[in-house]
Design goal:
single chain; 73 residues; mainly alpha; 2 helices; elongated
Length: 73
């Protein structure tokens, strides 16, 4: 079940994951804004999902471009 991939393929996979995370982040941020007045609980859930994708995006960015974002302690 283990696939051996070269560094170029690994980078392509990480870049696809970054693009997916970026799209999901935009989607959840927009959904949060749309729901803010109508359904505050759903808006809060959408914000939390957006934060999760933001964290994933930051990790993948750090893999591809180390040091781009300052490390927060």
């Amino acid at each position: 079940m283990t696939d051996v991939v070269d560094s170029d393929e690994l980078l392509r996979r990480i870049q696809r994951a970054r693009a997916c995370a970026r799209d999901e982040l935009r989607t959840w941020r927009a959904r949060s804004g749309d729901l803010e007045r109508a359904d505050p609980d759903a808006a809060r859930e959408a914000r939390m999902r957006g934060l999760a994708y933001e964290a994933v995006l930051r990790v993948l960015d750090e893999i591809v471009t180390p040091g781009r974002h300052p490390v927060e302690h």
